[in-house]
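User: Just a sanity check before I run the rest of the batch. Below are the structure tokens for the first item. I only need the designed sequence back.
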């Protein structure tokens, strides 16, 4: 019997069906060992010795592998075909050697780019040894991330109160976001005007032409800067005679983009499907590891962490066959297309991300996949097929026009484009964040010398706009352009920025939080080398050289550590005054944006003569007046307080205060404040005023007086227990929103609104908790009648609640009208009810997502292991997924 080890149970399940009884397939559940989250796990003074630790699930999986080895005559390590996969195999082998479990059993390493029967069997026929160069590159990256995180983060905590942790790649990504924010703050709009003439040919066909020159000089977009200039040009054009001077028609071709690699998949899935990079990778992982299609578990796509853009020859042939069959031979190019990786530092050579069987059209598998999986598979299939299709053929026409006004000569230009043959565009067109609408108008037939008739002249005012904030897709693209990070790190880096509350997402754009701006400014001031783009990119290149066995990994660490340790030492005598001076300079436009009336934004609005500046208190940063203690004005960094919104009681080091209004019942002032553990609401003043923290997801700037009063009313009674008759309360505690019955507490799911939680939901949470469940609605304590599946996924049930029957669909709960009996409700009626409720809660999309989450997410068992890693408590690791990055 042969024992085959993979990292994922889903992958193990798929491969087990491909192999006979001679094989046993077990999963390691990702990495079985990790560096303990404490100082000393990497020892620079001991030639960078690394102390690995097996605990929790890792220990259980090692025991499982040891058990399976007892009857095996060969161990086959079949983890993923990248640097991280090589490291997992190495960890397994090291752990087994430490336990002396191999006892002469031969070990082989195999890799396959797709989880299909043919790919697996071919890999088993071509075994190799573990690639030590790839392992060394992993060790170097892991050590670097650990050393940066555990060395730099304590400096942040001492010198910049309120900051979290700093990671090697994450800090550079944060700098990109913050630099863009500073560009936006410093941007000043510029007025400009455009002149457009609507003209007609002799046949009466009209088109638009833009003013591009006057009296022999070119006019660019910003050249006409005020209304007076625009008016003069408009008056001239009103009386001008228009003649065509030149018509130029050029044939152009537009070629398809290569098939997806990791970064381009994340970008397109974000733009076209609205998926976050982390979610894209979760879905792709499922498609890669195997999905049940017609009773057979099949891997639908190739490996999804890759820098490669090329495809296997058989896949190219299959794509050309599908193109001919589905679109016709006209769409099949004469020769197959070959693509090359542009990045000089591309990681290990893998295929592009493509379907394992290109003949498996999206419509064939849509019913067997969850909606998001089906959309992602369709996106990958279309991009792959389009990459081998014929180019689109177009004709771009430019018409130059002379406008004669007395002695003046004005020049206009019209352009148009028509598609002669759509080629790959019939299937797929890549979207871009900065995409401008192409001029696809077809111009009427004209020739030089034709006279044109004026129909209208338009002079329009415009203002330049600041550069847009980065979306997750455009940030991934920028990181790739700069050579920062690798396919396995993009999604994790973005998640880390959000988890550490350095950025937030608003309208699909990344907005830096105050603490993110402060951390970036601090690092740029005192550790500039380590957040420079070139330095980070060069380090990535050297890590790739390690994976190619070109340089020694410990030599790389020695060079890095010597300079890094020296930089840390230079901050020992750093004074708070030095920090403040540097931050005030870098963040001036962000903290003190210019006022519309031109007055000094740094003048204190309370005393009128003090200068505002950045202050650091033990609870974080804020803006205060230089006339302290006579003037006690304070405010948060990025929320300029209105006149009179000063803190009357605060002193130097006290967080800012924003007045929300007056409580109509007590006549006490309701204020928003910054505290040690984040923003909070306070009612009145005094020794023990009533306070409330904010629920996660509610930003301080969005809080209104009504929100604040509702939060201050917590805890409040929402229901009575169906057995005891005692009240069930809802409130916000140290660990977030909760419901309470006596001494029983149940956490409220993140999808529930603590201010709108209803009686049925509260009862379900308490009853489920009391019966030993996870506190989710629809547990064993409240069985319901299944009605069927929602069209977008997720089952619907009708249940009996304390306050009447209701329909449950994921996190959406719709009470039945009195005219509708729970025994006779149909699936169609239930769908109408939950759809209507979902619309009230912000759209049906949230309901579908919640429904999927509740049906696929495993229940948590026990308490999450506490981490002492720099940066507080990272998100708990998914047991079936490997950690793709380990920044400290």
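Assistant: Here's the designed sequence for the first item:
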């Amino acid at each position: 019997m042969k024992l085959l080890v993979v990292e994922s149970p889903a992958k193990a399940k798929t491969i087990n069906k491909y192999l006979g009884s001679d094989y046993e397939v077990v999963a390691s559940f990702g990495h079985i060992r990790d560096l303990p989250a404490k100082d000393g796990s990497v020892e620079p003074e001991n030639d960078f010795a690394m102390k690995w630790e097996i605990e929790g699930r890792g220990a259980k999986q090692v025991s499982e592998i040891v058990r399976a080895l007892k009857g095996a005559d060969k161990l086959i390590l079949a983890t993923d075909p990248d640097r991280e996969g090589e490291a997992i195999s190495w960890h397994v082998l090291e752990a087994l050697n430490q336990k002396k479990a191999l006892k002469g059993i031969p070990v082989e390493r195999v890799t396959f780019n797709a989880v299909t029967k043919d790919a697996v069997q071919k890999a088993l026929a071509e075994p190799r040894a573990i690639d030590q160069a790839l392992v060394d590159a992993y060790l170097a990256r892991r050590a670097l991330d650990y050393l940066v995180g555990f060395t730099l983060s304590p400096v942040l905590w001492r010198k910049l109160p309120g900051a979290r942790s700093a990671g090697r790649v994450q800090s550079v990504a944060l700098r990109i976001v913050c630099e863009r924010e500073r560009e936006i703050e410093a941007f000043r709009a510029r007025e400009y005007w455009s002149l457009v003439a609507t003209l007609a040919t002799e046949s009466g066909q009209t088109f638009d032409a833009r003013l591009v020159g006057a009296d022999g000089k070119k006019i660019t977009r910003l050249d006409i800067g005020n209304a007076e200039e625009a008016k003069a040009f408009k008056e001239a054009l009103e009386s001008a005679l228009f003649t065509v001077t030149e018509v130029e028609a050029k044939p152009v071709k537009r070629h398809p983009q290569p098939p997806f690699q990791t970064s381009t998949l994340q970008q397109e899935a974000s733009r076209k499907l609205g998926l976050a990079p982390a979610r894209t990778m979760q879905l792709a992982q499922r498609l890669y590891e195997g999905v049940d299609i017609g009773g057979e578990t099949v891997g639908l796509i190739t490996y999804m962490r890759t820098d490669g853009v090329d495809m296997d020859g058989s896949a190219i042939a299959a794509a050309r066959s599908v193109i001919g069959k589905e679109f016709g031979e006209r769409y099949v190019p004469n020769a197959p297309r070959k693509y090359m990786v542009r990045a000089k530092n591309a990681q290990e050579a893998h295929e592009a991300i493509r379907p394992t069987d290109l003949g498996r059209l999206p419509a064939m598998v849509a019913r067997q996949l969850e909606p998001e999986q089906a959309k992602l598979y369709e996106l990958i299939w279309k991009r792959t097929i389009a990459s081998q299709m014929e180019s689109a053929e177009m004709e771009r026409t430019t018409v130059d026009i002379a406008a004669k006004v007395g002695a003046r000569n004005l020049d206009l230009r019209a352009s148009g484009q028509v598609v002669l043959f759509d080629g790959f565009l019939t299937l797929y067109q890549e979207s871009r964040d900065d995409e401008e609408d192409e001029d696809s108008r077809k111009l009427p037939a004209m020739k030089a010398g034709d006279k044109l008739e004026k129909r209208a002249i338009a002079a329009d005012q415009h203002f330049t706009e600041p550069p847009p904030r980065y979306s997750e897709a455009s940030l991934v693209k920028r990181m790739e352009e700069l050579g920062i990070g690798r396919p396995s790190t993009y999604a994790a880096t973005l998640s880390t920025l959000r988890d550490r509350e350095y950025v937030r997402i608003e309208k699909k754009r990344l907005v830096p939080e105050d603490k993110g701006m402060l951390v970036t400014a601090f690092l740029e001031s005192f550790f500039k080398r380590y957040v420079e783009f070139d330095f980070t990119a060069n380090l990535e290149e050297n890590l790739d050289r390690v994976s190619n066995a070109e340089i020694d990994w410990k030599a790389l660490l020695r060079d890095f550590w010597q300079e890094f340790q020296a930089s840390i030492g230079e901050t020992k005598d750093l004074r708070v005054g030095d920090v403040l001076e540097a931050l005030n300079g870098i963040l001036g436009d962000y903290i003190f944006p210019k006022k519309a009336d031109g007055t000094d934004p740094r003048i204190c609005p309370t005393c009128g003569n003090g200068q505002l500046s950045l202050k650091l208190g033990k609870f974080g940063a804020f803006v205060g007046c230089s006339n302290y203690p006579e003037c006690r004005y304070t405010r948060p960094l990025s929320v300029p307080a209105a006149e009179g919104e000063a803190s009357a009681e605060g002193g130097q080091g006290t967080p800012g205060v924003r007045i929300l209004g007056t409580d109509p019942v007590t006549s006490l002032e309701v204020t928003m404040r910054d505290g040690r553990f984040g923003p909070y609401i306070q009612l009145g003043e005094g020794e023990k005023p009533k306070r409330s923290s904010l629920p996660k997801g509610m930003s301080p700037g969005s809080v209104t007086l009504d929100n604040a009063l509702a939060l201050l009313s917590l805890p409040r009674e929402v229901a009575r227990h169906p057995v005891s008759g005692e009240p069930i309360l809802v409130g916000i505690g140290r660990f977030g929103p909760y419901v309470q019955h006596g001494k029983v507490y149940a956490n409220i799911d993140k999808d529930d609104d603590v201010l709108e939680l209803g009686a049925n939901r509260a009862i379900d949470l308490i009853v489920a908790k009391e019966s030993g469940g996870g506190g989710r609605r629809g547990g064993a304590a409240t069985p319901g009648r299944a009605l069927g599946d929602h069209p977008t996924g997720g089952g619907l049930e009708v249940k009996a609640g304390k306050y009447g029957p209701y329909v449950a669909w994921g996190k959406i709960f719709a009470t039945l009208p009195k005219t509708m009996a729970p025994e006779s409700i149909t699936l169609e009626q239930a769908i109408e009810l939950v759809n209507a409720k979902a619309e009230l809660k912000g759209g049906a999309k949230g309901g579908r997502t919640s429904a999927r989450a509740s049906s696929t997410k495993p229940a948590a068992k026990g308490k999450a292991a506490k981490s002492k890693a720099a940066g507080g408590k990272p998100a708990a690791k998914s047991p079936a997924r490997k950690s793709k990055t380990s920044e400290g």
